[in-house]
Design goal:
The complex is a heterodimer. Chain A is mainly beta. Chain A has 2 helices and 15 strands. In chain B, strand 5 and strand 6 form a beta hairpin. Classes of the chains: A mainly beta, B mainly beta.
Chain lengths: 213, 712
């Protein structure tokens, strides 16, 4: 009996800073520090993009044919010459493209469907109160907006419910079919909006380009 | 010759044994001078000794003299208050006559929180509210918050940001009310509140609530009150019980307890699982749905008595809760705890308790994509403590003790790594009754916090005077709360809206609590009126800093909280009980301070209960009500400027609950509870509105296998 208590006591004498650290995943060791078009598989034209969209005052312009990601300021003039879609935080705009949310949740399923889906593809609209560049006045009702083009359909990839504080985020998990201005087709899906430690604004996008059935 | 020698030896032995006897005799009478037949007079700590009184109330017995320094006689009878009497260095014969008073129901309950020594409720110099195991079983609630709201007025658990639970107890928040489990502190907090879900009520002997400051015994955080949860120790050779509960709102509860007592060892194991579905609310509000969650809680306790005078208690526990706040990220909360405590009686009058406790509370984000569980918060507390009690005179006690704690905090809200600090304290308290009617209690405690090199002294002075059926109590108590590591070192970007900065120069919160109470008690009735006034200085909150362009932890200007509590309860032999409690709270905060008051001024709880018990069936029907008044608060129109306010009225409400508890045969209990009886649904869900969508029904079944098999 004494031995049992002694063993219990030993078990209760853990290290100063706590016990069972091992049950957690360490976020920082697994942080990805490279951004842009990270993976590309030429056999099925699929790839993965990882971008840092944490800055409220930056657009990240993606060019799918050259597989480049360029970070630029808010004004139209700062955009690179060639780009297809651009991401600001969770907002999306396109370079003259039109997009459609499909009912499918996987790119493989999308590719096996055999054709671009039919439907009302949505083009960009001009917005004045959508693209937030300054949150600091939010509690006093003075949010800073940037006037910009905005694709409402593609931006459905992440729903942000600001009805509660802090907002509740939920991904649509859907594949989006995009008809680009040059006539080529793109399919993409947002697979994460956080980095390995849970910081929001780091977007992982899975895509197929060009879409060739 | 041999015979003669043998007889002589026998005679010597008999003489020796005669010399070594202490004889005690006398009578036990009631207050009218009439005999109480069948009353027991026993010696504390000596099982099997003592005698019962005859028809004329007389008794007599002998005990061997073994060099005791002191013995304690206990006279008790059903329906009467027990009486204890000490005899120092006993030898020879004693004539001890007892006059017993009719007992006053719950007032015989022994409590520990107010003085840190066991005392019957009626003798405690600070008003203590007790919720008994029986009341807990009938309330059939899952955790401490629901129980406290049902039983006490002036207490509100509402939501703060991120749907985290936040307590307001008569103007004092979660960090100003100290929650203890068997006297031990709990690690971890979210928005200044501990995780109340950790405190499930399985195997709880009783809950003791002391309102007002108590830092002279408990140190930091005991500004507004102390809630102490006392765990049961098994008395039966074995026990197994099961509890299940299902509510129409989608809450499922299942728990199992197993206990044993074998010679010097006893143990108790408990596991509980709770699942709450998310609830979509019916109207608009500050939030549109209550997040679903599930948790489980496993507790193990072992008590070993290697010597008659030594008791060793070991405890270990694990708690896990997952909250479905978002489909992509689940909030995980974990707690690991363990403790070892040794209590040693040096003599009948001296007791030493040494203990070590470990508590680790972790928060992590479980990211569904990638199945990763990343920890963002860990609070680890190691606590070593000593408590020495010396009792003397008729019922006087001297208590002194000290604690040493290491407090470690890792948080996502820190920018430069984890922090740790050491805290230490020494305290002493004298509990002295110069006469049967008069009792003084005085105490002083020094606390030290290494990070700020902060010293703080907390005094207490209390007096109680009894006149016939009345007691009057008056006290002054100091309270304080040291700035926490979070409040000193936070450096957190709040969703890109603003920064929140810690402040290493914070002063400790300090309070002065004055209270005056009068209690009238008869066997069936109890009336208590308590008035109190608190002066709270340096309350810590966040305020906008123009210099930093963010929120900064700051000390507030002095504020006052005053009010009174009125409590009336009655219990009749034919099975009817009721209790009405009302509380009035007035909070006075200067204009321009970063925090405004939104404490509801009036609140009341009502409980009417009727029950009957037969051999194979028993029932108890209880109607409980909770009445909360509306409150109009001045709310700042700007986050950055504290000059403009607008009026915001939070509507009052009442919630009623009807519960029917039935005992079927032996050990089978069936509970049916209709909550929110009058189908109250808020027009708008404020954070402090009850998160109800209308009337709900819950059914509970509990099985006590020991009672079932032993047919008791």
């Amino acid at each position: 009996m004494k031995r049992l208590f002694f063993l219990t006591f030993l078990a209760l004498l853990p290290s100063c800073n706590g016990i069972f650290h091992g049950i957690y995943d360490s976020g920082e060791g697994e942080l990805i520090t490279e951004y842009g078009f990270l993976e590309y598989n030429p056999t099925d034209n699929s790839g993965t993009i990882y971008i840092d969209a944490t800055d409220y005052t930056k657009w990240i312009y993606l060019d799918f044919s050259e597989r480049t990601a360029v970070t630029a300021g808010m004004s139209e003039e700062e955009a690179p010459a060639e780009w297809d879609i651009a991401v600001h935080r969770y907002d999306v705009k396109t370079n003259g493209a039109a997009a459609l949310e499909t009912g499918m949740t996987g790119l493989e399923l999308f590719m096996s469907s055999g054709a671009m889906p039919e439907g009302d593809y949505v083009s960009d609209e001009w917005t004045t109160e959508q693209i937030i560049v300054d949150m600091s006045g939010m509690m006093d009702g003075n949010i800073g907006y940037s006037e910009s083009w905005y694709n409402r359909e593609l931006s459905k990839w992440l729903k942000v419910d600001t009805g509660t504080m802090p907002p509740v985020y939920s991904m649509s998990q859907k594949v989006y079919a995009v008809k680009l201005a040059d006539g080529t087709h793109l399919a993409l899906k947002l697979s994460n909006y956080m980095d390995a430690t849970g910081v929001k604004g780091f977007m992982t996008i899975d895509y197929v380009y060009p879409v060739e059935f | 010759m041999g015979k003669l020698l043998f007889s002589a030896c026998l005679a010597c032995l008999a003489a020796a044994s005669l010399q070594a006897q202490i004889r005690i005799s006398g009578s036990v009478l009631d207050e009218k001078g009439e005999a109480i037949p069948g009353a027991a007079v026993t010696v504390d700590g000596m099982p099997g000794t003592g005698a019962a009184t005859d028809l004329d109330g007389s008794y007599g017995f002998e005990i061997p003299q073994t060099g005791q320094n002191r013995i304690v006689l206990v006279a008790s009878a059903v329906g009467y208050e027990s009486q204890r009497r000490r005899i120092s260095e006993p030898q020879g014969s004693y004539g001890e006559d007892f006059v017993l008073r009719e007992s006053q129901e719950l007032l015989e309950t022994v409590v520990v929180t107010a003085t840190r020594t066991p005392k019957p409720l009626k003798d405690v110099p600070i008003i203590t509210r007790v919720i008994s195991a029986e009341e807990i079983a009938r309330a059939d609630v899952v955790h401490i918050g629901e129980l406290l709201e049902t039983e006490l007025p002036g207490l509100e658990f509402s939501y703060s940001m991120d749907q985290q639970v936040s307590l307001n107890m008569q103007g004092f928040g979660g960090n100003s009310v100290l929650f203890l489990v068997d006297g031990e502190r709990m690690a971890g907090e979210t928005l200044d509140n501990i995780d109340y879900n950790r405190l499930n009520l399985d195997n709880v002997e009783r809950v003791e609530i002391v309102k007002g400051a108590a830092s002279s015994l408990y140190g930091s955080n005991a500004i507004g009150g102390v809630v102490n949860i006392i765990t049961r120790e098994p008395a039966e050779p074995w026990s197994v019980s099961m509890n299940t509960r299902y509510s129409t709102l989608g809450q499922k509860v299942g728990s199992i307890s197993a206990g044993f007592r074998a010679g010097r060892l006893s143990g108790l194991t408990n596991a509980q699982y709770v699942q709450s579905d998310s609830i979509s609310l019916k109207n608009d509000g500050d939030y549109s749905k209550v997040y679903g969650s599930w948790n489980y809680n496993v507790k193990q306790q072992l008590v070993y008595r290697p010597l008659d005078r030594l008791k060793i208690t070991g405890k270990a526990g694990y708690y896990f809760r997952q909250r479905d706040a978002s489909p992509d990220v689940k909030d995980n909360y974990r707690d690991f705890s363990g403790s070892l405590k040794a209590e040693y009686d040096f003599a009948e009058s001296d007791n030493l308790t040494l203990g070590y406790a470990f508590d680790q509370y972790d928060k992590s984000n479980y990211m569904v994509a990638g199945s990763r569980d990343v920890r963002e918060y860990s609070n680890v507390q190691h606590n070593v403590r000593a408590l020495y009690t010396h009792s003397f005179g008729k019922s006087d006690n001297l208590v002194f003790g000290g604690d040493f704690m290491r407090d470690y905090l890792m948080s996502y809200q820190f920018s430069d790594g984890a922090k740790a600090q050491y805290t230490g304290d020494l305290f002493a308290q004298l509990d002295w009754s110069p006469t049967d009617r008069l009792n003084f209690v005085s105490g002083l405690r020094f606390d030290y916090f290494s990070d700020r090199n902060l010293f703080h002294a907390s005094p207490k002075l209390g007096v109680m005077y009894k006149i016939s059926n009345c007691s009057v109590r008056a006290s002054y108590a100091g309270g304080f709360r040291a700035p926490t590591l979070k409040e000193m070192y936070m450096n957190f970007n709040m969703a890109n809206i603003f920064m929140i900065y810690g402040n290493p120069d914070l002063e400790a919160e300090e309070s002065h609590n004055f209270s005056l109470s009068a209690e009238y008690m008869t066997r069936r009735h109890n009336l208590t009126l308590t008035g109190y006034w608190n002066l709270v200085d340096n309350r810590i909150t966040t305020a906008w800093s123009d210099a930093l362009k963010g929120q900064l932890y700051t000390n507030m200007a002095p504020l006052q909280v005053a009010g009174f509590d009125l409590n009336f309860s009655a219990a009749y032999d034919f099975g009817l009980k009721y209790r009405i409690s009302y509380t009035f709270t007035h909070e006075k905060i200067e204009k321009g301070q970063p925090m405004t008051s939104s404490t509801r001024p009036h609140s009341a709880t009502v409980k009417i209960e009727y029950g009957k018990d037969w051999r194979t069936y028993g029932f108890d029907i209880a109607l409980t009500g909770r009445v909360m008044s509306a409150v109009t608060a001045d709310v700042y129109t700007s986050l950055t400027d504290y000059s403009q306010t607008e009026k915001q009225t939070y509507p009052g409400y009442t919630m009623w609950k009807l519960s029917i508890a039935q005992r079927i045969w032996h050990g089978i209990r069936l509970n049916a509870i209709i909550d929110n009886l009058f189908n109250y649904v808020p027009d708008y869900y404020y954070n402090n509105s009850p998160a109800t969508v209308g009337t709900t029904l819950s059914l509970g079944l509990s099985l006590d296998f020991n009672e079932i098999f032993n047919n008791r």
